[in-house]
Specification:
26 strands; about 35% strand; 12 helices; 6-stranded antiparallel barrel; about 500 residues; about 25% helix
Length: about 500
Amino acid sequence: MKKANLFSFIATAIAAISLTLNFTNTCAATHSSPDVATNNAAAPGNAVDLTYAAEKALPSVVYIHFLQNSKIQTVEVESDPFADFFDPFGGFFGRGQGNGGKQKRQVQTPKKEGAGSGVIISEDGYIVTNNHVVAGADELTVTMNDNKEYSAKIIGCDESTDLALIKINAKNLPAIKIADSDKIKVGEWVLAVGNPLGLNNTVTAGIVSAKARSLGANGVESFIQTDAAINAGNSGGALVNTQGELVGINAMLYSQTGSYSGYGFAIPTSIMNKVVADLKQYGTVQRAVIGISGNDVNKWYDAMKAQGKEVEVATMEGIHVEEVIENGAAAQAGIEKDDIITKVDGKPVKKMSELQEILATKRPGDKVTLTYMRGKKTLSKEVTLRNAQGNTKVVKNAELDILGATFRPINANEKEELEIPYGLKVTKVDNGSMKEAGVPAGFIILSANDSKITSEEDLQKAVKSASTSKEPVLYLKGIFPTGKRGYFAIELAQ
C-alpha cells in the first residue's frame, strides 16, 4: 500500500508539473504581441500564434463581385445543308454566301457573374486583386469585412503577372501593411485570407513550401508556393505572415479536380509593388527585358542528354542563354549564346523564375550588373534594360485620340448593301496616325490585328494592346463603300 501511494503521489506531481509547463507555453504562444509572435515563429518547438495575424489581415481583405452584362455577338456556325431545299428563296437573302459552308449569326451571350477577393493597400481606396477576377467586367461591387458595399472602377490590369488595380470611392480604409516578400523563408508560417467557395472572411494556415516557383500559366511568374488551403474565390486575396503583413496575392491552386489538393500559389509583393506603381503612374506596366531567351541550366543540360548530346557546364545553377535577341540589351553588352547567368546585381539566380522576379521590379532604362560564366571563366557586365520595343522610353497605352479620327458602328442598310454582319465606319479623319497611313473617311474597319471590330470599345482594346507590344503597329482590314477590300498599317508611335 505504501509503494502504491508513493507511485500515486509521484504520478500526481508529474501531472501537475506537466500542466504547469503546458499552461506556461500556452500563455506564451497566445500572447497577441507581434514581438512574441515573431519570437515564437523563430524559436524551434514553440507554438505559433496566428490569431494576431488573422485579426490584422481580415479587415483589409474584401469580397469582389464580378458582373458582365449580356451582349450581342456575331458567330460563325455550320450551314444547314437542307435549308435551301425547304426554303423556296434558297440563298437569296445571303445565308452562307461565299463562306465555305458557314454562315454568320448574331447570338446573345448570357450574363456572367463571378466572385473573388481583393486586398486594400491604401486608405483612400486602392485595392489589389487578380487580373482574372476583374478583366472584362461591366460592373464590380466590393464588399468590406463589415459588409459595407462600394462600386469599383478598374485602374489597370496586367495579364502577364495576373494582377489588377481597382479603386473604390472611400476614405480611412483599413489598409494592410506590406512586407518584403524577399525576406520570407521556406518553412515560415503564413495565412491565406479570402472568400473561397462563397464563404466570406475565411482564413487558412500553412507554411511557405517553396519560392520562385514557375508553372507556365502567366507570362511573368515567380510564385510563393504554400500548403495553406486556397480554393476558388481565394483569388486576389492576401497571403500574410505571422504579423498579418502582406507577402503575396493569392493567385491559383494546383489541382486536377478544381478544388484544393495540397498547394496554392501567390504572387510575391516584390512583383506586386512594381505593377501597382506602374498602373497608377502610367496605366500600363513598364516591363524591362534583357533580350535573351533561355532556361534553367539543369533543365537545358537534361534536355541535351536526352537528345544524346554530350555537353559540359561549369555550374548547374543559373540560366543558360539559348538565344540573344539582335540589338537587344544583352547583345549590346556582349552576352553570347551558351553563356550561363549566375547573378544579377550580386544576387544569385539559380532559375529563370528568379531572374523574372528581379526583372519584374525594374523599368526600361534601369541598369543591372550580370555575372555569367563563359566556359569556365566568370565575367561581369553592366546591362541597360530596355522595353519590348527595344528602347528605354516610357510605354503608355495609346488612346483612340492617337488615330485622329471619329467612328460609328455600321447601320442596317450598310450591312445589307455590303453583305457584312458588323463593322466600324470611319466618319471623319483629322490629323493623326490614320491620316498619315492614308485611311479615308468612309472606310469600314472589320478587324484590327486579327481581332474583330464591332465597336469603338473593340478598337480601343486593339490600339492599347498594339501600342505596348514589341511592334506598335495596328493592322486594319476592312471594306470601302464600293465593296472593295482594303488593308492599312498604322504606326502607333507615342
